């Protein structure tokens, strides 16, 4: 993968409601223990809706750092919470504690979504791989391969694919990550 982002739920402030920590790895950085930057996303109401962030990067590529940049990261954090298999909101459904996303080497527009089971700390050995492909002219992904039961309702259906499509589209929309 070229550019990558690692999403993790971590209780960084010790208050008991985990924040989403997003680590960015730039193209050429193969050291997955050393990200190029980290952004922490918070829920100011502790209601699992992320609405605040640490300082962000210029996600939209317009040359400044503003609320629009933060909105990309907040959207991704809220999609992570929507994934029952990842979100710590319900530990009985939570199977994974980290997701690493990146553009595929071939084709370069595909987004690979690597899932890591709780306790798996080897980022080079994902437990599950989901691939988003076939983006339309606006950059929204239309095809998901290998989807999991992301919403935790007991089946794999269009609702699960919709979560992955939105997640991949949000990731791919960050201008500084374009291949």
What can you tell me about this protein's structure?
With 179 residues, the protein is an alpha+beta fold. It has one domain. The chain has helices at 67-82, 158-173, and strands at 4-10, 19-25, 37-42, 52-53, 96-103, 111-117, 128-135, 141-145. A hairpin with a 5-residue loop joins strand 7 and strand 8. It is globular.
Task: Sum up the structure in keywords.
2 helices; 8 strands; alpha+beta; globular; single chain; 28% strand; 8-stranded antiparallel β-sheet; 18% helix
Topology:
Layout: E1 4-10, E2 19-25, E3 37-42, E4 52-53, H1 67-82, E5 96-103, E6 111-117, E7 128-135, E8 141-145, H2 158-173
Antiparallel strand pairs: 1-2, 1-5, 2-3, 3-4, 5-6, 6-7, 7-8
Helix pairs in contact: 1-2
Short note summarizing the structure:
This protein is of the alpha+beta class and 179 residues long. It has helices spanning 67-82, 158-173, and strands spanning 4-10, 19-25, 37-42, 52-53, 96-103, 111-117, 128-135, 141-145.
Compressed to H and E, one letter per element, the order equals EEEEHEEEEH
Work out the number of β strands: 8
Rg is: 15 Å
Q: Into which percentage range does the β-strand content fall?
A: 25-35%
Biggest sheet: strands side by side, in what order?
4-3-2-1-5-6-7-8
- Average the pLDDT over all residues and give the rounded result: 83
What proportion of the residues is helical, as a percent range?
10-25%
* Shape verdict: globular
Estimated structural class: alpha+beta
Terminal CA distance reads: 10 Å
Largest sheet: 8 strands, antiparallel
The number of domains: 1
Number of helices: 2
């Amino acid at each position: 993968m070229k550019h990558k982002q690692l999403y993790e739920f971590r209780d960084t402030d010790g208050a008991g409601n985990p924040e989403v920590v997003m680590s960015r790895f730039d193209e050429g950085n193969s050291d997955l223990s050393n990200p190029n930057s980290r952004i922490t996303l918070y829920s100011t109401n502790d209601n699992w809706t992320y609405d605040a962030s640490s300082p962000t990067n210029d996600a939209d590529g317009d040359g400044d750092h503003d609320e629009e940049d933060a909105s990309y990261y907040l959207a991704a954090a809220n999609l992570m919470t929507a994934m029952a298999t990842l979100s710590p909101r319900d530990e009985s459904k939570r199977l994974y504690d980290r997701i690493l996303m990146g553009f595929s080497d071939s084709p370069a527009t595909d987004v690979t979504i690597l899932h890591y089971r709780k306790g798996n700390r080897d980022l080079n050995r994902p437990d599950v791989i989901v691939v988003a492909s076939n983006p339309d002219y606006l950059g929204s992904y239309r095809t998901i391969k290998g989807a999991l039961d992301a919403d935790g309702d007991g089946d794999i259906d269009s609702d699960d694919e919709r979560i992955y499509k939105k997640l991949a589209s949000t990731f791919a929309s960050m201008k500084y990550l374009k291949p």
